[in-house]
Amino acid sequence: MRNELFGWIWVFAALALGVVLGLKFQREDWLGGYSSFPRRMVRLAHVALAALALEFALRKRSIARQIGHQLKQVAGKLGENRGRDRA
User: Fold this and answer.
1) What 3-state class would DSSP assign to 49?
2) Computed from CA positions of residues 51, 53, 59, 61, in that sequence, does the dihedral angle turn out positive or negative?
3) How far apart are CA 26 and CA 44, in angstroms?
4) Using one digit for the tens of pLDDT, what is the confidence trace for 59-69?
């Protein structure tokens, strides 16, 4: 649960960073202009933060779902075998 919460917090941090970047992007001289290296790295960092945080938050759910599905399959097979032993 903590890891999932951490991931969602970083998703919202990426959104907040996007708002800050969006408020300043129209200024021509901000970080050396649109095609300057520092500005490209800031845009890349923003996208990477959002993508990795979202992946981290959702992977936690998919792993839990996958483990739950596998446990149900194992329990079903154990139940089948137990029924055969009694018959």
Assistant:
1) helix
2) negative
3) 17
4) 766 666 666 66
